[in-house]
Specification:
Layout: H1 2-21, H2 28-37, E1 45-48, E2 51-53, E3 61-62, E4 64-68, E5 71-76, H3 78-81, E6 90-93, E7 98-101, E8 103-108, H4 110-116, E9 120-121, H5 128-139, E10 148-153, H6 165-168, E11 177-181, E12 186-189, H7 191-197, E13 209-213, E14 219-225, H8 240-256, E15 259-264, H9 276-291, E16 297-303, H10 307-317, E17 325-333, H11 363-375, E18 379-384, H12 387-400, E19 412-415, H13 424-429, E20 433-436, H14 440-452, H15 454-460, H16 464-469, E21 473-476, H17 487-496, H18 514-520, H19 523-528, E22 546-549, H20 554-560, E23 565-570, E24 573-577
Helix pairs in contact: 4-8, 8-9, 14-15
GO molecular function, one term: hydrolase activity, acting on carbon-nitrogen (but not peptide) bonds
InterPro entries: Amidohydro_3, Metal-dep_hydrolase_composite, Metal_Hydrolase, YtcJ-like
Domain Amidohydrolase: 91-572
């Protein structure tokens, strides 16, 4: 009897020690040790009979995998996976289909994208008449005196002429209008909106922005970068309910495209309030998390000028708030965009010889905020599109990191679109992440040649292959709603680089292979935001986020990159299916 009680007591102690040790299992190695110690490894779901690309170099391909408690339990061949199945284990037979890890969109403005889905959509409008007609139809459904909001227009696809308030004044006499350009760095206000904002010929251009004027000095209605702050405060803020609905719309849209994690830079653009991302964090994301309405994992970046608030939050809550919400870091802007002629270059624009673009922030102020953010352990990300802006930020990153404190910083440059000779190598040498958006090149191929000249544009634009060759890390994204969330399209763009109306690739030497493109949307994207312990590859211990594609031929996929998303799984549960009536798994 004494032996029995001694044995029982020892067993209880082992169990208690095991339970107490669970919070310490904060990395993959420890998590796997815990799995091995488990008295029985039983899968909730086994995925079989497919071609599974894992984004894990230790086992790039498998035909089956087992999932337990929302995480990958084992990846391998069917004979090793079937051992983990029991009576209640469900099976997903892929019938030869390809599976890839859940895509990570490395740059979105998630709630603005969801809001835009319910506003006037001007993406693809290719004539002035269609532009005006879209506004005329939309304003008919808006109460007199209310703001009409929309965006997505791209003047390059209707010949390049910039829109003016006079285009739409006659159809919007009783409603102020604000229509953002597709890149978010320029917007059009009608005359009523200009009047409400107090904008006239007497206004001076603000630092880091410009009011576009006609030959008589009168504002045309176009505002660039920080000049947008003259109008934006007059637009009623979206309500909490509207922003919550926007999150749900955005999440459903992302899942439809196979995106299971997004890096969200929020409602933060030149001229907007730095409070907006914080409002969305408290009013929308925390609400969704607590109420069970989160559908995709979110890594949040906040305006750099609020860095100390993020430090305080992280010190209290840590970086991982739940399986859904992760605190990423801080973001700032160095310049504008190519389409708005506000990207900052070493040489002037070929179509505007007195214009080098805009440096939208004081460099000393940016350095001080970057230094403080980095010293506090925050990840820093800065928007830079023009070659001079990229060089300025790389110089600044080198200076900040010169304190000889060896640390895994993972500095990021968002966009890195146009690079001067010699700049490519610096990304690898300084371990700076190039967070790039392949689909932007589809819009820029024609305009870049006009704005920069053919030789200059082809020498330094969207240098994906060169960056990888020089050991830089690429993270792919969309910049939604600037471009649509569509990883499969972006992967094809990065491999083919054929803009609309072109028969050949633009800068074919920069085309990627399928493996590099997939990794840029999966494991490299996860590493770029410090989430590689949790997502990015189909590896034991990570969340079971994966996408089932419509093709069953890897060779065809690698060559033509034509496939659709058939189903998206988050944590091993089906979050989207092209066949909504299918409720299995």
């Amino acid at each position: 009897m004494n032996t029995f009680w001694v044995t029982l007591s020892a067993s209880v102690i082992v169990v208690l020690l095991s339970i107490a040790s669970l919070p310490l299992l904060n990395n993959n190695a420890n998590y796997l040790k815990y799995l091995r110690r488990s008295s029985s490894e039983v899968a909730d779901l086994v995925v079989t009979n497919g071609t599974i690309y894992t984004s894990d170099d230790s086992l790039p391909f498998a035909d089956s995998m087992a999932i337990s408690n929302s995480r990958i339990l084992r990846v391998g061949n069917y004979s090793s996976i079937k051992k983990l199945a029991r009576t209640l284990t469900k099976e997903l037979n892929l019938h030869g289909k390809i599976v890839v890890p859940g895509f990570i969109d490395s740059h979105v403005h998630f709630i603005p994208g969801g809001l835009q889905m319910a506003r006037v959509e001007l993406r693809g409008v290719n004539t002035k008449d269609l532009f005006v007609e879209k506004i005329r139809k939309a304003v008919a459904n808006v109460k007199e005196g209310s703001w009409l909001l929309g965006g997505g227009w791209n003047n390059d696809i209707w010949g390049g002429d910039l829109p003016m308030a006079s285009w739409i004044d006659s159809v919007t006499p009783h409603n102020p209008v604000w229509l953002a350009r597709m890149d978010g760095h320029m917007g059009l206000a009608n005359t009523l909106a200009l009047t409400l904002a107090g904008i006239s010929r007497n206004n001076e251009n603000p630092n880091g922005g410009a009011i576009i004027r006609n030959n008589d000095g009168e504002p045309t209605g176009l505002l660039i970068d920080s000049a947008m702050k003259l109008v934006l405060p007059h637009i009623p803020e979206a309500s909490v309910d509207e922003r919550r609905e926007a999150l749900l719309r955005a999440s459903s849209h992302a899942l439809k495209r196979g995106v299971t994690t997004v890096v969200d830079f929020g409602r933060y653009f030149p001229g907007s309030s730095p409070e907006y991302p914080w409002d969305d964090f408290s009013d929308v994301y925390r609400w969704a998390d607590l109420s069970g309405n989160m559908m995709t994992r979110i890594c949040l970046f906040f305006p750099m000028e609020t860095w100390s608030r993020l430090v305080d939050l992280m010190s209290k809550s840590g970086r991982v708030l739940s399986q859904w919400i992760y605190l990423g870091g801080v973001k700032a802007f160095a310049d504008g965009s190519l389409g708005s002629n506000s990207a900052f270059f070493h040489e002037p624009y070929a179509d505007d010889l007195n214009n080098y673009g805009l440096q939208v922030v004081d460099l000393d102020s940016l350095y001080n905020m970057t230094f403080s953010s980095d010293k506090s352990g925050l990840q820093v990300s800065i928007h830079a599109i023009g070659d001079r802006a990229n060089d300025l930020i790389l110089d600044m990153y080198a200076s900040v990191a010169s304190d000889k404190q060896i640390r895994d910083r993972r500095f990021r440059i968002e966009h890195a679109q146009h690079l001067a000779p010699g700049t490519v190598a610096r990304f690898g040498e300084q371990s700076v992440v190039a967070s790039v958006q392949p689909d932007h090149l589809l819009d820029d191929a024609d305009s870049a040649s006009k704005k920069l000249g053919c030789e200059r544009a082809e020498r330094g634009s969207y240098l994906f292959k060169s960056l990888l060759t020089k050991n830089a890390q690429l993270a792919f994204g969309s910049d939604w709603p600037v471009a649509d969330i569509n990883p499969l399209k972006s992967i094809r763009t990065s491999m083919k680089r054929v803009p609309p109306g072109w028969e050949k690739a633009w800068i074919p030497s920069e085309c990627l292979c399928l493996k590099d493109a997939l990794n840029a949307y999966t494991i490299s994207a996860a590493h770029a935001c410090f989430l590689d312990k949790y997502v990015g590859s189909l590896s034991p211990g990570k969340y079971a986020d994966f996408v089932v594609l419509s093709t069953n031929s890897w060779e065809d996929f690698a060559t033509e990159v034509f496939a659709d998303v058939e189903a998206t799984y988050v944590g091993g549960f089906k979050a989207y299916s092209i066949r909504p009536e299918d409720k299995s798994e």
